[in-house]
Write a structure and sequence with these properties.
Distance between the termini: 45 Å
Structural class: alpha/beta
Strand content: 15-25%
CATH superfamily of the largest domain: Nucleoside phosphorylase/phosphoribosyltransferase catalytic domain
Order of helices and strands: HHHHEHEHHEHHEHEEHHHHEEHEEEHEE
Mean pLDDT: 95
CATH topology of the largest domain: Pyrimidine Nucleoside Phosphorylase, Chain A, domain 2
CATH class of the largest domain: Alpha Beta
Low-confidence stretches: none
Number of strands: 13
Bound molecules: uracil
Number of domains: 3
Helix content: 40-55%
Radius of gyration: 22 Å
Shape: globular
Length: 426
C-alpha cells in the first residue's frame, strides 16, 4: 500500500496548497506505471492549470520528468554543445539554417526535435520532404555526427522523458496545454535530458503563437531560463514576434527550399535576421568569437548543411517535390498590405495537408502557402497575394475557406513590425 493517495494530491492542489517533493515524485512515477488513472492525472493537470506550481514544486516536477528516462551524454566532444528551441511559429524554418550555421562557427548543435501538431509545423516533417532523409539515429550516431559534421537534427528517441510524452498527449485532449509551469517543465526536461551545455530559447509571441501577450511570453521565458540555469545549462531566451508568417514559405518542402535560399546567402530578410540574431546568442553562450553572417556569406554554413543532410541519407541537391495543384488568392482592390495573419496562414497550410490533427496522421510534403507579398507592399486589384499548394481538390477546397481574410489591405503604409522583442538573460 502506498502512503499517498491520488485524490489527496489532487484536492491539495485544487485548494492551493503546496505539494511536497515526495508527493510529486510519487504521483508522476505512479502515473507512469499506470497506477494513477488518466482521469486523475487530468484533474491534477487542470488544478495546476488554475493554481500553478511554486518554484520548489516546478523544480521537483521537472526533475522527475528528466529522471523518468535516459539522459544523453555529450561530454567529451571536441566542440562545445549549444542548442535552440522555438516554442512554435508559422513558417519557422530557422532550425534548418541555424544548426549548420552555428556548427560552421565551431560549436556542436544537437537538435532533438519533434513533429508538428496543429498549425505550427515540426522540423522533422520539413526535413522528411527531402528524398532519402531519415530522422532516427542511435545515441552513438548522434555523438559521431556531432563530432564529424557539428550538427544533428533528428527525432528525440522514445527513451527521453517518457512521462512528458504521456502527459503531453493528455494535456492535448484536456485543455491544459497553455499553462506556464506545464509548458516550461515539458520543454526544459527534454532539453536538459538531451545533454546540451547551452540553450537559446526562441519564445514566440503574437497571433500565430500559442502565447498571445508579451507579459505571458516573458513569464514563460523567465521560468524556462530559471529551470535551465538551475540544472547547469547556460540558458537565455529571445522573445520574437509571430504576428505574420516568418519568411514567405509555409509548408514542408516549401520551407526547405526557402531555408536553402538563406543558406546560399539570399532568401527573405526576416528569416536571415532572426537566424543571425539567434546564432550570435548561441555562439556567445559557448564563448565562440565568430561573426555568423560571415559564415552564411562565405558558403561554409551551406557546406555543413549538405554534409548534415547526406549523413542522414538525404540528397541535398535533389529537386524538391512540388504540389500537383496551385491556386492564387488575389487582391480584391488596390491598397497596401497592412497585415498577413500568421494564424490564418498556418491553419490554412495545415488544412491544405502540411500539418496533422492527430499525431498518427501523415503529412503532405508539398502542401502549403507561399506569400507572394509582404507587409507594407503596394498591390493592385487582381494581383496575386498568396499561392495555395495542395495535392488534391478536397484539400484545396478546405484551404480556400480559412485563407479568405488572411491578408488585410489598407490605404496607407505603416511602420515595419519589430521582430526581436526582448532578450531574457537574468
Ligand atoms: N512544446 C513542448 O514540448 N511542450 C509543451 O508543453 C509545449 C510546447
Amino acid at each position: 500500500m502506498s502512503m499517498f493517495s491520488a485524490v489527496d494530491v489532487i484536492t491539495q492542489k485544487r485548494d492551493g496548497a503546496e505539494l511536497s517533493d515526495e508527493e510529486i515524485s510519487w504521483i508522476l512515477d505512479a502515473y507512469e506505471r499506470g497506477e494513477v488513472a488518466e482521469e486523475q492525472m487530468s484533474a491534477l493537470l487542470m488544478a495546476i492549470f488554475f493554481n500553478g506550481l511554486t518554484l520548489q514544486e516546478l523544480g521537483t516536477w521537472t526533475d522527475r520528468m528528466i529522471e523518468s528516462g535516459e539522459r544523453l551524454d555529450l561530454q567529451g566532444l571536441s566542440r562545445p554543445t549549444v542548442d535552440k528551441h522555438s516554442t512554435g511559429g508559422v513558417g519557422d524554418k530557422i532550425s534548418l539554417i541555424l544548426a549548420p550555421l552555428v556548427a560552421a562557427c565551431g560549436a556542436a548543435v544537437p537538435q532533438l526535435s519533434g513533429r508538428g501538431l496543429g498549425h505550427t509545423g515540426g522540423t522533422l516533417d520539413k526535413l522528411e520532404s527531402i528524398p532519402g532523409w531519415r530522422p532516427f539515429l542511435t545515441n552513438d550516431e548522434i555523438r559521431s555526427q556531432l563530432e564529424t559534421v557539428g550538427a544533428v537534427i533528428c527525432a528525440a528517441g522514445s527513451g527521453l522523458t517518457p512521462v512528458d510524452r504521456k502527459l503531453y498527449a493528455l494535456r492535448d485532449v484536456t485543455g491544459t496545454v497553455e499553462s506556464i509551469p506545464l509548458i516550461s517543465s515539458s520543454i526544459m526536461s527534454k532539453k536538459i535530458a538531451e545533454g546540451t551545455e547551452a540553450l537559446v530559447l526562441d519564445v514566440k509571441v503574437g497571433r500565430g503563437a500559442f502565447i498571445k501577450s508579451v507579459e505571458r511570453a516573458k513569464e514563460l521565458a523567465v521560468t524556462m531560463v530559471g529551470l535551465g540555469r538551475a540544472h547547469g545549462v547556460k540558458t537565455v531566451a529571445q522573445l520574437t514576434a509571430m504576428d505574420a508568417p516568418l519568411g514567405r514559405a509555409v509548408g514542408n518542402a516549401l520551407e526547405v527550399t526557402e531555408a536553402v535560399e538563406v543558406l546560399r546567402g539570399g532568401g527573405p530578410s526576416d528569416v536571415r535576421e532572426l537566424t543571425i540574431a539567434l546564432a550570435k546568442l548561441m555562439t556567445e553562450l559557448v564563448g565562440i568569437d565568430v561573426n555568423p553572417s560571415d559564415r552564411l556569406d562565405d558558403g561554409s554554413a551551406y557546406e555543413v548543411y549538405e554534409r548534415m543532410i547526406h549523413a542522414q541519407g538525404g540528397d541535398p541537391d535533389a529537386t524538391m517535390p512540388l504540389a500537383a495543384l496551385r491556386e492564387d488568392v488575389v487582391a480584391a482592390h488596390d491598397g497596401v498590405v497592412e497585415s498577413i495573419d500568421a494564424l490564418a496562414v498556418g491553419v490554412t497550410a495545415w488544412r491544405l495537408g502540411a500539418g496533422r490533427a492527430r499525431k498518427e496522421d501523415p503529412v503532405s510534403a508539398t502542401a502549403g502557402v507561399r506569400c507572394l507579398v509582404r507587409e507594407g507592399d503596394k498591390v493592385s486589384k487582381g494581383q496575386p497575394l498568396l499561392e495555395l499548394h495542395a495535392d488534391d481538390e478536397a484539400h484545396l477546397a478546405t484551404g480556400r475557406v480559412t485563407i479568405a481574410h488572411a491578408v488585410v489591405l489598407g490605404s496607407a503604409p505603416r511602420a515595419a513590425a519589430t521582430l526581436l522583442l526582448d532578450l531574457i538573460d537574468e
